[in-house]
Amino acid sequence: MRYDVSFADLQVQPLAAVDLDVPAPERIADLIGPAFDEASGAASRQGIALTGPPVAGYLPGADGWRVTVGFPVAGVVSPEGRVHAATLPGGRFALVTHTGPYDGLVAAYAAVRDYALENGFACEDGWWERYLDTPDVPAPRTEVLVACHPVRPHATAP
């Protein structure tokens, strides 16, 4: 699959979020659905509007993954159960939209990292995903966002 990767300067976005410690990647799908429901439910009960599609941030660790899942919101959510206020970070990101099964996202990550390196940037550890469609869509769209920083002096994004 060919990917059209680009850079974007993103603003910090407040989130209604749930943090998950996931020991193995195959467990992620079972855990994030209920966490999305918790986050959207808490925002709704608090009268805070959702302002975008669901997101998940992934940070690999020695014992699995730290996953932050939630929704961009129009205010700051108060703690409720596992739900807390968090942010989708701002800054320079390389991003691409993957269309198809989630197990094909590995190629999208590789395309993002290659593009960043070719343009004088390195990717930070971890990444974010925006789920533009529900999982029941035959070919769901997932936007992959990876924070980047310049590694060459005066590197500028195309």
UniProtKB/TrEMBL annotation:
Pfam families to which the protein is assigned, alphabetical: GyrI-like
Protein name, UniProt field: AraC family transcriptional regulator
Organism name: Nocardioides iriomotensis
Top-level taxon in the UniProt lineage: Bacteria
Domain AraC effector-binding: 3-149
